[in-house]
Description:
- This protein is an alpha+beta fold and 445 residues long.
- It has 12 helices and 15 strands.
- The protein has 2 domains: 283 residues, Antithrombin, Chain I, domain 2 (2-Layer Sandwich), CATH 3.30.497.10; 128 residues, Alpha-1-antitrypsin, domain 1.
- The chain is globular.
Amino acid sequence: MKKNYMIFCAAAVFSVLACGCAEAGDSKNADSVEAAAVEDPDIPIDDYEAWNELLSENDPDTEFKESLLDFAFESAEAILPMEEGNAVYSPLSLYYALSILGMGAAGDTETEILEALHIDDKAELSKQCAKLYLRYAYTEERERLLREEYGEEAPDSSIRLANSLWISDDISLRPEYQEICAEDFYASSYNVDFKDEETPGKMGKWISDQTQGVLEPELELSPDTVLAIINTLYFYGGWQTRFSEELTEEDTFTLEDGSEVRVPFMHRTDTMAGFIRGEGYKLSGLSTSNNCELLFLLPDEGTDIGKLMEDSGGLKALLAETEGKWETGEVIWKIPKFSFGSSFDLKEALRSMGMESMFDSMTAVFYDMSKDPLYVDRAIQEAHIGVDEEGIEGAAYTMIAMAEGSALMMEEPEVIEMDLDRPFLFAVHDYRNDVWLFLGVCKEP
């Protein structure tokens, strides 16, 4: 797996976080607005109290984290089944894109979006999204400065969000809406001609730049498009304890239909680790250097993943509602190296989550965004995940295109084997901030 972040980190982190791709839109129309700069904290790296205070100030409220949690699993259950094979999806990327959209909605359209996001107030939504964005930015900057102070390599970790608006000259966005997007979502606005064949390439380059080249989409845009909202999420986390490449061996992975493929498996034993032995499955996880974890849920042999989710009450019950279920013991890992991506047309999934009016040119209301009648023409996401001996790399972008419309055990530890040689679920969880970054299923590594 290519660790793109290691190459990137030598650059000034904050300038990239704030400005995105300055040359993406060539127009100097007044509608072009640059994202607010992330303020340099200017805190000595050894002033731990000041750094902790800064991060605490930008820690989202518990209620907001619960909103993210509920949205993550509700949306994943609507979206992941759309893929028959491997699938990976970023609920956080979609949440930010919908939040930016929701800031411009009114009436029933606003109500539907906010209900899906599990939040009552647009002002609170923008405030909490800004906090989480800054918390990730400052956490990354602190880690970079620490490494620099001790003469170490660039940090092998990153969680980076980016947002942008792409606007046709055919419409005019309300200045107050663009200001909220720039100040609270750190989103730059670019004026473009969606009928120009070079526009998709500019947008694709912006996405590639924000995801360190992991995603290089060839976007297809409708000539009716007048506005596009894009969020990107880039993640890299090195294992706290890395796998030895010398122990990686090719072995057999059994597919859902019983056929077999040969793939490389990584091996490791953790003598004191947490796990859950549930009814029909085992669950355990591996920690990364940036306080995240990759959870693996392995169904028992002969247990169908879909049936397991149905009987257990869904993904949230299996992966998040686990308090009091964890045990400690020896975990013997055998994990296939895997790397794959997914592309989703989100329209029907979002409709199923109650967001219907925004897709109808007759009922969509986005008057807080523009005086022009607008509706959502397309909502898509592309995501990628890669796991190898060094760590996890993930990236996602979500685009919403709009058109005009009318504890330690004292006894002998139990031993379990996480032999992931058949389809399994996985999740990347930022446990420090309690944010679910990626959810997926691996049916063929």
